[in-house]
Fold these 2 entries.
Entry 1:
Amino acid sequence: MMIKRCVAVLLCLAALPALAKDTLNLYNWNNYIAPETVKRFEEQCKCEVKQTYYSDNEELLAKLAAGAKGYDILVPTSNAMQSLIKGGQLKPIDKSKLSNLKNINTLYMNTEFDPGNKFSVPYAMSTTILGYNAEKMKELGLPTDTWAVIFDPKYLEKVKRRVTVLDSSNELFAAALKYLGYSANDTDEKHWKEAADLIKRAKPYWAAFNASSYIKELTVGNIWLVHGYSNDIFQANLDAQAAGRKFSILQGMPKEGAVLAVDNMVIHKDAPRPDLALLFMNFMLEGKNSAELTNLIGSGNPNTDAIKYIKPELLKNPAIFPDAAVQAKLEQLKDLTSAQRKLRGKMWTEIKASR
Amino acid sequence: MRSFPARSRWLWAAAGAGYAFLYLPLVIVVVYSFNDSRLNAEWVGFTLDWYRKLAHNDEMQTAAANSLIIASVASLVSTVLGTMAGVAMYRYKTRLLPLLVLTPIAIPEILMGVSLLIFFVLLNFSLGLVSVALAHIAFCIGFVAIVVRARLSGMDETLTEAARDCGASPWQTFRYITLPLIMPGVIAGALMAFTLSIDDFVITFFTAGAGTITLPLQIYSMIKIAVTPEVNAVSTLLMLLTLILIVVATRVSPSLLRSNEENE
């Protein structure tokens, strides 16, 4: 009797999410949509937006690959999105419902990651660039517009143990390849070898491989120069100003070019509410809504209609809105084949182990 | 005994260092929850701002509430089932039973997380609080069972025999003799299950569905954009709650924190 009742209660509880109506489930990066934007959408669609977060594309891929469902909208980076498309995880979008799609800069449409935008709409972007303590770099007379400053011992001498680079083989190799004048997606083994040697030579001068706490290290003043994500460096400066630091943290776009990461809105194949998902996509394609995210976290914006709503000081920032010359040198990272990944992994291990 | 003072000093120092290692990080978390700076870097000034912000942060509150609900349910159910398993393991000394009960402890968490997710998907069971609670129960049972069995093996078996001689039914023997004797083990198991459940990340990550956030999931997703002292504030509150739980548990069963008192 007892057991029967327990089972009944359990089943009811399990069925609850199905009963709750008009909810859009958004599987997103943390802090990747302005709270006021969410509120406005909820009012407009008379529904509730429930957000769940991931902190890495791999987390998202792993979870969906195991069969998790219930998510309507996902916001993966281009190469992860490509794997999702290949895995048949996404639902094609009905573009007739997206009247605001015209707002997106054609530069970001119809990329090789999703030809014809059958599944995706660009959401926001970031670049992997230099971040630096403006006062210190000026004092030391170091350039801030070239990868040389984190790879060339001539410059590194002056900032020894005050530099961190991302703990990501893909990002660091891309920066090294760019510095050497190759494409970030170059797959020539010889070029990789050159990049690895470059990294090994610079490594003794670096303080650490750091992908998580470098924002704080910059803000506190322990670290003066980083290889990091543009959004993070933007956040570091906000934090430094809020904490009343006497220096500012600036973004430096290397003239050799950098990695561009575009995050895209897509609909999961098992989305419970594809209708709401399309409404949300169209809503986020409105300039004002898209601009709110850029104003909040300093992300790059592919929306031409958003420009007029973005704070002027952000528009002037070449790391967030690069000019055409730099723009042409930005590259999105492609997925490696498994053989390439193996080689890259081996090189990375050697780099980590080298002294 | 000749070198008692020297050794004792050494022992005290070692104990002090051990406790410092255990508790200093917790003290730092609490101290910085009152710090007037977004960075957990240096002391700026005293403030209650983070607690105020926490009071308005629905997301963090929902996450904390979910964690508490899941931990309470998981510890309650796994304590009942785990105690039963512990008693059974003690009474029927088969080889298979411990294997069945204890395997979930030995299995790597990530494997258990993935396999549970696949299992839930296969059953078409919607992922949410219930699936997370079920998963937590599954891995907590083993821990409770171990503690209870350990407690039982320290018990004087003549007591249950005496009870049976005096005409007590098996249930009465369990209820009035065995259970009170193993109560410290049961409560210790329950507390352990509660802690394991509230801070579990890996298994929760896989079994939580759309819209289900728990505190560890929430904090983890914030790591990329720098953890704010709101996390310190919510952690401080949780520590306070745990502390209260332990105090209550020791009141209910005073012998909980002393081992094998009744054997003496």
Note: The domain at 57-263 of chain B is CATH 1.10.3720.10 (MetI-like fold).
Entry 2:
Amino acid sequence: MAPKKRIFPRQKICRFCADKSLVIDYKEVRTLRNFVTERGKIIPQRIYGNCARHQRKLTDAIKKARQIALMPYSGPTQL
Amino acid sequence: MRRYETIFIVRPNVGEDEIEAITSKTSSIIEGDGGTIIRINNWGLKKLAYLIKKESQGHYVYVDFAGIPASVAEIERIFRIDDRILKYLTVKLSDSCDPEAVKEQLASAEPEATSDEKEAVKEQPDSAEPEATSDEKEAVKEQPASAEPEASSDEKDTGINESDNVEEEKAD
């Protein structure tokens, strides 16, 4: 039996904490698009390692963008 | 005074002058209640992310203003009555606002911001769609027989892929 391979997760850092110039705004769809899947689902923070505070702001922004049809509720994100 | 921003979407077949009329009507309501318009941007015709009232495109108009809650209620009432308006969204930006100070601040940062927005609008149609779709196809081709029901479903985020890799490694 092969020895169990341990996966060492990379130290993930919150992108918004690292780069202060990145703002979370529901009108800036190009930033938000990086944090949803191709089908428009919000990617959980355990994947990208966003901090809780920024993930919360991000989900709020994505949901607002969905309301005003800048982003889809479901379906292709690229227009 | 509170600071709000309103975005409303007008039907695509409505002319520029009619949009102008709607915008000026909106601003007159705000100013009638003692508010101030900070800026009005017409984002032009944009593709909607989903159909609204069977329309796939719409004119976006963005209004940034300082005003009182009653004027927001009045604007939204009028938007709901007006057939030409597909959808609207009002967001409160801050509880107290000094419109003059905000205007000055914007004026100093204005040139950059507007050019950025224009770029964003222009670049949207030819953004990375072909890439994404080809990636998807490749992924499907690579693992045609591997028994992964999740992979074929629409949720293919990195988390699932990672866990799949782990399983394969264990099997070895």
Note: Strands of chain B lie at 2-10, 36-52, 55-67, 85-94.
